[in-house]
Amino acid sequence: MSATDFDIPTLRARRTNKWHKFAPDVLPAWVADMDFGVAPAIAAAMRRLTDNQEYGYAARDGVLAGAFSRRMASRFGWQTDPAHAIGLGDLVQATFSSVMAFSEPGDGILLQLPSYPPFMGAIADTGRRLIPNAMRDDGQRWVLELPATVDPRLRMLIFCHPQNPTGRCYSRAELEQVAAFAIRHDLVVVSDEIHADIIYPGGGHIPLASLSSEIAARTITITSATKSFNIPALRCAVMHFGAPALLQRFLAKMPTRLLGSPSVTGVDATVAAWDDGQAWFEEIMAQLLANRDWLARTIAAELPGVSFRVPEATYLAWLDCRGLELPCSAGQFFLDKARVGLNFGETFGPDYAGFARLNFASPPKVLAEVVGRMVDAVRTR
Amino acid sequence: MSATDFDIPTLRARRTNKWHKFAPDVLPAWVADMDFGVAPAIAAAMRRLTDNQEYGYAARDGVLAGAFSRRMASRFGWQTDPAHAIGLGDLVQATFSSVMAFSEPGDGILLQLPSYPPFMGAIADTGRRLIPNAMRDDGQRWVLELPATVDPRLRMLIFCHPQNPTGRCYSRAELEQVAAFAIRHDLVVVSDEIHADIIYPGGGHIPLASLSSEIAARTITITSATKSFNIPALRCAVMHFGAPALLQRFLAKMPTRLLGSPSVTGVDATVAAWDDGQAWFEEIMAQLLANRDWLARTIAAELPGVSFRVPEATYLAWLDCRGLELPCSAGQFFLDKARVGLNFGETFGPDYAGFARLNFASPPKVLAEVVGRMVDAVRTR
Fold first, then answer.
1. Is residue A259 packed enough to be buried (19+ CB in 10 Å), middle (13-18) or exposed (0-12)?
2. Is the CB of B89 inside 8 Å of chain A's CB atoms?
3. Interface confidence (ipTM) of the complex
4. 3-state class of A313 per DSSP?
5. B residues 268..287 contacting A (CB < 8 A)
6. Residue A66 to residue A381: CA distance in whole angstroms
7. Numbered ranges of CATH 3.90.1150.10 in chain B
8. Which CATH number is B8-31+278-380 given?
9. B 125-144: CB under 8 A from A
10. Would you call B43 and A53 a contact, using CB atoms and an 8 Å cutoff?
11. Is A260–B260 a contact, with Cβ atoms under 8 angstroms apart?
12. Reduced 3-state DSSP string for chain B
């Protein structure tokens, strides 16, 4: 079996949210995990724990932080200090804890829209104010346009890079604008770089904090192997503070024992992924690239009224369905009429009901069935 | 291989804190996990995840809370509402979050001493004040003596039941005193009941919150399968709120997404333990009982100057070594002279340097070697 060859009955048997949120006749293409397996190195690490029944308090001090630093250096040429990295369960925790440590209720937090929904939750649920910063579709791609004036209580920027759901991989020039903006307005930046591995040919990921020590000193970089290595259920993430003073400010407000620590399965799988998973990942990337290009061709040819800017990163397609002039949200239309489960655009911001997010990290025949159903639904409506 | 038959080389090969904190010539008997394996039901659950590479976002809504409620009903006759249970990584998170949600910096929190060290951390690290409540050795056992007068800013009680490290399993009469005290002083109670399964013949665990709806309404019960089923590295715990209003007060202060959620391995192992692990656990309990009784006889016969109150619960022996009149702490003496790694008493409170905590959840031959080394060290000093 190849790394990307799973049939629908096998996938539907998985006890995952992706395959169980919707009715059994719906083909899901929503939440961001992949309809593939895991790297052999991860499977071996999990098997070792299972075989040895090794579930006592795990001796893993510094192991995750060390793997993070090796990975950032080998993959992005970014030198980090493992002593400034904290392991925890997920990036949403990292975002909530950063917001709570570096701002007060009522403070403003800038966020590009459309946005991964939990970032809006981290602002609303903690009593901070979302300062929306809509991205603009320039006809070629989604571009970042930072505001010329800012709220007097603006304290933070939650920055998603590569951007979810638009799939933008920002250039050095764009990142330098972001850094200058954050420095000019004295913002702390949470830089979510969870999709950094998943960049298509022509692009390259540049960690925001790698630009200069000045931006690093105010940046918390949050990442995880869960997206690129397909292990979100194992709950393991890293937050890295770009300067010791930033870490100290965080720790003064946020006891790390409140946040918990990742399970041994999360740590061992992540270390296996980052240190020994690259060959598998390259195979997956080849499939994702083929899927992306097939999707772009097929939508252009067979789904008039739907457009999207071909993502430079991620396995997510942000479909602009406004040309269909639907009587309901795009997500609802494709769920009801195509029996395809996409992410509803309106969950990424109130202005996006005409959009839907499609996850194309599936075996080609599954993706073909998803898109075929969408084409039929549009043709027969 | 029986459930309790592991030799020292096999144990030392485990990548656990227990076997790697000290030098290789030290026999460890400290941190509270067991030198055994796990229940066949847990091994099967882990193997299923490993075989199916099922690490996408897990469909486990309500699964852990349901298993918790079934377990509390079947084991302790306690009816709980799964809708009032929250899953998270560990009990230390549960304690920190409760302290932060139900008290303010500067408030007083009552805690029985000696105490599991992280409870002192949850008070100190959050800027609350520890109001110490020393237990008293009445010659038969450690008894609880609640204070007659209390600090005007006393807001909470962190209650450990069965008590770690003394091994007390409180009677209904004692629990009723605790409940009356909490109600009289309008305290919120965090009741750590993680050792509730591990009760020796003659005793029986009564959940504090099961006494009355009045005490339930102010009690957060925190528990986990990690101690009794030997899976602490999988990081899975439950906090249960005894009334909807208590849960609402908690949620108003503490966004649950800050706390994260347990990994799929933690959830599946816990559910397997609670629903299908009891036969294995009974086998383990028989070994723990034999170990406890052997330890009591052997210490009485061969370690003059060391005494302990035979625990009614837990696999922990709280050794009073003050009769040895050592020139250093008891933990340090046995580490240096016996090459045995115990928990140092002074970490359970400043008055306990003459004590040490011994974990007797080991194969009999390992326990015999631990105690034999201690006997030799005392004889030859």
1. buried
2. yes
3. 0.97
4. strand
5. 269
6. 54
7. 8-31+278-380
8. 3.90.1150.10
9. 125-126
10. yes
11. yes
12. CCCCCCCHHHHHCCCEHHHHCCCCCCEECCCCCCCCCCCHHHHHHHHHHHHHCCCCCECCCCHHHHHHHHHHHHHHCCCCCHHHEEEECCHHHHHHHHHHHHCCCCCEEEEEECCCHHHHHHHHCCCCEEEEEECEECCCCEECCCCCCCCCCEEEEEEECCCCCCCCCCCHHHHHHHHHHHHHCCCEEEEECCCCCCECCCCCCCCHHHCCHHHHCCEEEEECCHHHHCCHHHCCEEEEECCHHHHHHHHHHCCHHHHCCCCHHHHHHHHHHHHHCHHHHHHHHHHHHHHHHHHHHHHHHHCCCCECCCCCECCEEEEECHHHCCCCCHHHHHHHHHCEECEEHHHHCCCCCCEEEEECCCCHHHHHHHHHHHHHHHHHC
Which residue do the tokens 């055994």 mark?
B36
- CB nearest A235 (choices: B100, B126, B263): B263
Residue to test with chain A: of B265, B271, B315, most A Cβ within 10 A: B265
Inter-chain residue contact B260 with A235, CB threshold 8 Å: yes
Superfamily covering domain A8-31+278-379? Aspartate Aminotransferase, domain 1 (3.90.1150.10)
Distances (CA, A) of B267 to A233, B94, B277, B361: 10, 16, 14, 24
Within chain A, which residue ranges are assigned CATH 3.90.1150.10?
8-31+278-379
Query: Of the candidates A35, A238, A263, which has an alpha carbon nearest to the alpha carbon of residue B234?
Result: A263
pLDDT at A191 over 70: yes
User: Dihedral (C-alpha) A271, B95, A257, A238: value to the nearest 10 degrees?
Assistant: 40
Structure tokens at B352: 């306990």
Q: What is the pLDDT of residues B206-246, one digit of tens each?
A: 999 999 999 999 999 999 999 999 999 999 999 999 999 99
Which residues have CB under 8 Å from A326's CB, separation 6+? A333, A354
Task: Please indicate whether, in this complex, the C-beta atoms of B17 and A56 are within 8 angstroms of each other.
Answer: yes
Residues of chain B with CATH 3.40.640.10: 46-276
Rounded to whole angstroms, the Cα distance separating B358 from B347 reads 13
Cβ-nearest to A18 among B42, B57, B265:
B57
pLDDT in tens, B43-79: 999 999 999 888 999 999 999 999 999 999 999 999 9
Chain A residue numbers touching B20 (CB-CB < 8 A):
59
Q: Which residue is listed with tokens 């904190």?
A: B21
Q: Left (φ > 0), alpha (ψ -120 to 50) or beta: where does A339 sit?
A: left
Q: Considering the domain delimited by A46-276, tell me its CATH architecture.
A: 3-Layer(aba) Sandwich (3.40)
**Torsion sign (Cα): A172, A178, A182, A187:** negative
Among residues B309, B323, B325, B312, which one has the least CA distance to residue B357? B309
The arithmetic mean of pLDDT across residues A41-61, rounded, is: 94
List the beta strands (DSSP E) in A12-165. Answer: 27-28, 85-88, 108-113, 129-134, 136-137, 142-143, 154-160
Q: Looking at residues A353-375, what average pLDDT do you find?
A: 98
DSSP A321: -
Handedness of CA A74, A79, A81, A86 (dihedral sign): negative
pLDDT classification of B304: cutoffs 50, 70, 90: very high
pLDDT digits (tens, 9 = 90+) for B114-156: 999 999 999 999 999 999 999 999 999 999 999 999 999 999 9
| Distance of residue B54 Cα from the nearest chain A Cα, in angstroms | 6
